[in-house]
Design a protein that fits this description.
This protein is of the alpha+beta class. It contains four helices and three strands, in the order H-E-H-E-E-H-H. The chain has a three-stranded antiparallel β-sheet with strand order 1-2-3, covered by helices on one side.
Length: 132
């Protein structure tokens, strides 16, 4: 696979992705790239153009499919970034930004659940019965 250049993406983001791929030790030559027609909403444009990108990284058994944007070049960039995220989650979970974000969200949800359980009127803490 060739690195997606000029995908309508900020050059700084391209450099960051390139550095991240090098840090993870990913071999872009091992990535299999396939372009297919997309699906879903979009009418004739979606049915006729091959703007859906599928990346397969056999080294880790990861398959990414991206059709978030209209343009093929931008979808290639987004798919490669997603592939780098998944590889990082597999080989280096302690440095994965995505896993850290999931952990923050999990803690926030747990905190909200415990606060709701302590609130008066909840199923676990019913309101006191009114005196008759």
């Amino acid at each position: 696979m060739k690195f997606p250049e000029g995908a309508g993406v900020n050059p700084q983001k391209l450099d960051e992705l390139r550095a991240r791929i090098a840090r993870l030790g990913m071999d872009l030559n091992a990535v299999e790239e396939k372009f297919t027609a997309g699906g879903g909403k979009g009418g004739q444009k979606i049915n006729r153009s091959k703007n859906c990108v599928q990346l397969r990284y056999p080294e880790h058994g990861i398959i990414i499919r991206c059709q978030r944007e209209r343009g093929l070049a931008l979808n290639r960039f987004l798919a490669l970034r997603e592939l780098a995220d998944r590889v990082e989650m597999k080989i280096s979970p302690e440095t994965s930004a995505r896993l850290a974000r999931y952990e923050r969200m999990r803690k926030a949800k747990a905190s909200r659940r415990s606060r709701a359980a302590r609130a008066p009127g909840s199923a676990e803490n019913p309101p006191p019965e009114a005196a008759r």
